[in-house]
Amino acid sequence: MDTALFERISETAWKIEPSGRMRVPAIIHAGESLIRDMDDKVREQLVNVTMLPGIVRAAHAMPDAHWGYGFPIGGVAAFDPDEGGVISAGGVGFDISCGVRTHLTGLKRADIEQVQTKIADALFHHVPAGLGSTGKIRLSDKQMSAMLKGGAVWALIEGYGEKRDLGFIEERGRVSGAQPEMVSERARARQTREMGTLGSGNHYLEIQEVAEIHDAVAARAFGLRQGYCVLTIHCGSRGLGHQIGTEFLREMLIAAPGYGISLPDRELACAPINSDLGQRYIGAMRSGINCALANRQIIGHLAREVFRRFWPGIELPLMFDVSHNTCKLETHEIEGQPREVYVHRKGATRSLGPGHPSLPNAYSLIGQPVLIGGSMGTESWVLAGLPTSEAAAFSSACHGAGRRMSRTQARKRWQGRQLIDELADRGITIRSPSHRGVAEEAPGAYKDVAEVVDAAEQAGLAKKVARLVPVVCIKG
To answer: What is the rounded distance in angstroms from the CA atom of residue 361 to the CA atom of residue 169?
Structure first.
């Protein structure tokens, strides 16, 4: 991307002032090399977002941004319902509430290495992964509605996980305002056998070693110790979320002219928040959020079952579970006054600073854990929200490394079997139902996640706490 198209307002902030149909500025948070490597489509899509009705302050793109459907992935934008603000299914994404969940194991890397192949096989066989994967759980229509309403709280009642987990899940494991009746029969049918499954694409279950501590105080509060391992789960709402997104995008596109909305891009189909369509989507989307929270809660339980085969009595306490494809009603300072706005985060993680009332008590003085997935061959990160996070980008940060080449390009360049062997030589055990999927998720297909988190810290979005490296990866 040509940096001459922006006004550089700091080392890690690039701004386009409003012109034409733009209602607010567009801001990309990235270092110079990262922004130069971004596809120009990121700028184009971010500028398009600034044209939507009711947008406030600015439209933001995170350091890992790349182009997506309508909104750039890594896009953040807030809309005021009292000013005709809209909600966009494309601004949430198709995998509603895709997110990351990290458990502490209390095990050193050497402990894992003693059973590395066996535990990799056990996790692979116990946690279904891959395109169209299904599990042993089969939900009736009544159970489906209860799950969509109850999220991780429902999963706990059904016997998955532990009560203390809920305090370390965003929204305490259940988003209020879900309306299961707004979820179509087709979406429900797609999810009937998919609870407790990873799915495909960049989703994974990974055992990771804490390789480096950057903030000792925050790491201690989060329970992270150098040389010890964590278990991280990355997945979302599976087929249900995708179906909700598909159906409402189509309906929003058709309805937009009737609301007087002139779309800069058909992929930015949206509806006024206070409209019947907007409210129906919000009810369905919140159901999708609860589906993802329940799904990760179940997978966490399944992973505990596997670990207890090898280490009877092991606890695997939950460190945190947070989504990065959502739209939330939040209070933010707009023009000097607190206002309730709907914050879209598509491929962006909520990043609450110290003292926020939504934080678990254990993290109140530190800030929210911000869980950043890397690639199966490089590293992942744990960051923490900062006091500056709110003003920087509506308390948001990056969510991963960000792709630098498409899946098609990756398949042409790498062979899955060869990658698995190469990673094994480096001490990383990969299990996947698809060699093609492994090739698509090749480490080289992603940006340098260390550079991304450096930019996030310099931009005041979040601070570095710990660097994690993969030991075992179950790849969807």
So the answer is: 13
CA of residue 33 relative to chain centroid, distance: 24
Q: Do 439 and 457 meet the contact criterion of CB atoms below 8 Å apart?
A: no
Q: pLDDT category, 291, cuts 50, 70, 90? A: very high
Q: Of 103, 234, 356, 399, which is the active-site residue? A: 399
**Alpha-carbon distance 72 to 86, whole Å?**
17
> Residue 323 — φ and ψ, nearest 5°?
-95, 160
Cα 326 from Cα 338, distance rounded (Å): 21
User: Of the candidates 208, 189, 215, which has an alpha carbon nearest to the alpha carbon of residue 100?
Assistant: 208
Estimate the share of the chain in helix, then strand, then coil, as percent rounded to the nearest 5: 40, 25, 35
Q: Please state the φ and ψ torsions of residue 195, each to the nearest 5 degrees.
A: -70, 140
Both tokens of 425, joined, read: 């030589």
Q: What is the mean pLDDT of the chain?
A: 96
The domains of the chain are located at 3-475
Can you tell me the distance from the alpha carbon of 230 to that of 218, in angstroms, rounded to the nearest whole number? Answer: 16
Give the containing element (helix H, strand E) for 464: strand 462-475
Query: pLDDT of 105-139, one tens digit each?
Result: 999 999 999 999 999 999 999 998 888 888 899 99
Please state, as a whole number, how many other Cβ atoms lie within 10 Å of the Cβ of residue 413.
12
- CB contact set of 418 (below 8 Å; sequence gap of 6+): none
Q: Which CATH superfamily groups domain 3-475?
A: tRNA-splicing ligase RtcB (3.90.1860.10)
User: 177, exposed or middle or buried, with CB in 10 Å at 0-12, 13-18, 19+?
Assistant: middle
CA dist 242 and 476 (Å) reads 16
Element (H, E) at 199: none
- Alpha carbon distance 209, 194 (integer Å): 29
Contact 327, 285 (CB under 8 A): yes
Q: Is 324 a catalytic residue?
A: no
Average pLDDT over residues 166-179: 98
User: Using the 8-state DSSP alphabet, how is residue 31 labeled?
Assistant: -
pLDDT of 447-475, one tens digit each?
A: 899 999 999 999 999 999 999 999 999 99
Q: How far apart are CA 22 and CA 49, in angstroms?
A: 8
